[in-house]
Amino acid sequence: MKSSNLGYPRIGEKREWKKSLEQFWAGKIEKEQFLSQMEEFRLQHLQKQIDNGIDLIPVGDFSFYDHVLDTAVMFGIVPKRFDYNSGKVSLETYFEIARGTKDAVAAEMTKWFNTNYHYIVPELKEVVPTLVENRPLQFFKEAKQKLGIEGKPVILGPITFVKLSKGYSSLKEVVQQFIPLYAEILMELQAEGVEWVQIDEPILATSLSEEEVNLFADVYQILHKAAPNVKLLLQTYFDSINHYEEIISLPVQGIGLDFVHDRGENLASLKKFGFPKDKVLAAGVIDGRNIWRTNLEERLWLLNEITELVSKDRMIVQPSSSLLHVPVTVKSEETLEEVLKDALSFADEKLSEVVILTKGFRDGKELIDEEIAASTKAIQALNESTFRNNQQVQNTIQNLASVRAEREAAFYFRQRAQEERFHLPLLPTTTIGSFPQTQEVRKQRLLWRKGELTDAEYEEYINLEIKKWIEIQEKLNLDVLVHGEFERTDMVEYFGEKLAGFQFTKFGWVQSYGSRCVKPPLIYGDVSFQGPMTVKETLYAQSLTLKPVKGMLTGPITILNWSFVRDDISRYEVANQIALALRKEVELLEENGIHMIQVDEPALREGLPLKRENWESYLNAAVYAFKLATASVQNKTQIHTHMCYANFEDIIEAINALDADVISIETSRSHGELLYAFEKNTYDKGIGLGVYDIHSPRVPNLEELTRNIERALQVLDPKLFWINPDCGLKTRGLEETVAALEVMVEAAELVREKL
Ligand code: GLN
Ligand code: ZN
């Protein structure tokens, strides 16, 4: 029996990796220096795993940007718009694909399954894949030469790789092109004497068709024949596998299953169908996606349950997925509450948990009694702490049935009341919330955080910004104004800092895409309202204008999906706690005369479960939490929501069920598709179409905006139609923002006249 790991974070304890990359991109360090720094990080990360005592250490998971892009360039897959002929893809071209050049747009990037990591989408159109370098072999050799270890090369499997790519029509045909290349990689690894190869096929944790499942049998048959002496470990993660019987009979030597995020389904399959005697089971029993300390006793118990079906000598103990999705080490956190810090486990701590668990499981529980006791104690202490025992919150949660989560009247009646309250023109114009967060805004906040600016001075500065932008909006003649969100760094962090139940780490970064890292808040206790969060700024803005100012909150599901969430209660319960706290804020705004309130849910869609069959329960819970936060207002109060995408055709029922009076969505980049969605489905409430793309500094022209609006009005009721940019403007500069909004207002007026 062995301990293993699936992948290790690239970014380093203090984000050294990010800094090195960005210095290289900025021309501040030479290529040689960059490459040697990267090698140093890569070896350090391996050394840590060696020191921890991990038996099977992954090699080749390290990357300069993204492992899907690594796989693509290994096959010479470079989109035609970049400079490339043949042979090994240069470092320069590699970064060009990821980041674009002044003449060629970067390759698209999208979410890696249901995580917050984004990969570069390979473009298979018009390219013939060839093996231009054997990366796994290269990294295997490096680890052997430099550190004297026999690593476990990690490769992204062919079917997942092609499924994540674009620009092809027949999956089967394209996969067939790749089989000989994968076979070549494996044969070379075999020649080098490699024992285990981890081949990642996380696509197996999604819903697959019959045909796709059959493809696995064909592909792995060939790969096995090509390199029969290499032990292939077919690795799945993030959910259970639906086609358990077919998958366990594939001609591979090991199967990796996730026993953390499978809702007990993998274990159930194991019990129902057994496990082949000639294979190894790599059991992912330590959460690779969340940051909580492992309950060793409970996990040992699970491992023992598995040994009723698989003998110990055929088992591997490992995290449920790569540790890419958690921060590096708890050690750096010096300011956290002790009871919380004790109950945390980041990548390094998870590695030692894997090793401890392996030892206890292999050589006897008594050997790890001490560690078990310590883990139980830490988890218990947090569970019993006041942070997780807010009686008031828990009582309300238990009596949710008595909390009204439906608006007083149906939309039709509310619409009348709101018309009377606001007297807006047809096609009202507004924005999504934030205005440019300039260098100066960020500088002032930093000074304030360092204590160099008093609260009063900082507040005065924020008020000046609000005032400036209210004047600009007045001058632009927008119909519904916003205060501009200058007091917020981040739309989740801002609320997390004001609500009880959240904590922020100092170095708890995880890679989001390329060198960009995010530091998700920790929701560790019962969430509750502690005092007004947005009232002051909103009322100040409203005091400066007669036009309505729209209040601006982040919704419960977005806060949930962009945080590390406690796992002792269900995620939905946490969402409801957040919703109840936001409900208080909504009510406070309303009491103070703010009758338009936007509750943003940009992360609603990305929280969808991997498998279609689990969507409904997620969407029901999301809709409920949103309504819990918003439904207590009067008819005349208009609830808005915002989402940064238009592809909600498949979730339109849920969007409708949110019962928001107005939704604003992104559409400027996907106009045609949107209209198609509306022709087929009926969305019968207010809708604001993003009429221009805020992701670029380009100022749109009058003609294109007018055209966008008129096209939408062919299918949408002008009485329900709003005009706004795609998303918040915080990343834009002042001048381009004003110029673009000017054109937007002018376009609205032009179209209005013709109605
Ligand atoms: N109100 C937020 C803003 O304007 C919305 C951001 C988002 O949708 N991601 O910045
Ligand atoms: Zn948005």
Tell me what you see in this structure.
With 755 residues, the chain is an alpha/beta fold. The chain is 44% helix and 12% strand. It has 27 helices and 21 strands. The strands form five sheets. Strands 1-10-9-8-7-6-5-2 form an eight-stranded parallel sheet. The chain has a six-stranded parallel sheet with strand order 15-17-18-19-20-21. Strands 11-14-16 form a three-stranded mixed sheet. Helix 7 (171-191) packs parallel to helix 8 and helix 17 (439-449) packs antiparallel against helix 18 (455-476). The longest helix is centred in the N-terminal third of the chain and has 22 residues, at 31-52. The protein is globular, with a radius of gyration of 27 Å. The mean pLDDT is 96. Zinc ion (ZN) binds at residues 432, 602, 642, 644, 727-728. Zinc ion binds at residues 432, 602, 642, 644, 727-728. Zn(2+) 1 binds at residues 642, 644, 666, 727. L-homocysteine binds at residues 432-434, 485, 600. Its EC number is 2.1.1.14. It is an enzyme of class 2 (transferase). L-methionine binds at residues 432-434, 485, 600.
